[in-house]
Design brief:
4-stranded antiparallel β-sheet, 1 helix, 8 strands, mainly beta
């Protein structure tokens, strides 16, 4: 009897998920990674906005801030905000301004339930 209850407990963790996982890499057209940029995916319609920050290699993972929540299935507009440094000593942006707004970036993402999606992005220069 204890064996059957334990088996049910283990199998319950293997069921379908209500979200997806989305990760990728952001690079410039010359292949260099975009470091410290914020990638924002805003749902088209209802849902939660998800975001991630690129690391030193340009890699990011999208989430709602809770790493276990993942990304809800649906359609998203994606924007990228480049880190230009300290507000008092800002550096010039290196990517086109259109990426700063998900509505004008031209980047869209479609996510299916339970999907493990790679969404790599190549951005044009300013």
């Amino acid at each position: 009897m204890y064996y059957a209850a334990g088996l049910l407990f283990v199998l319950a963790g293997c069921g379908p998920t209500d979200h997806a996982e989305v990760a990728g890499r952001v690079t410039r057209t010359d292949g260099s990674p975009l470091v410290g940029a914020r990638v924002t995916a805003r749902p088209i319609g209802e849902g939660k906005t998800v975001y991630g920050t690129t690391d030193n290699e340009g890699n990011y993972t999208l989430s709602t801030g809770d790493p276990t929540a993942g990304v809800q299935p649906g359609e998203y507009e994606v924007g990228i905000s480049e880190n230009t440094g300290d507000p008092e000593r800002r550096q010039k942006p290196t990517i086109a301004a259109k990426y700063g707004n998900p509505a004008t970036s031209g980047l869209t993402l479609s996510v299916d339930l339970g999907e493990h999606k790679t969404f790599d992005i190549v951005v044009e220069p300013r």
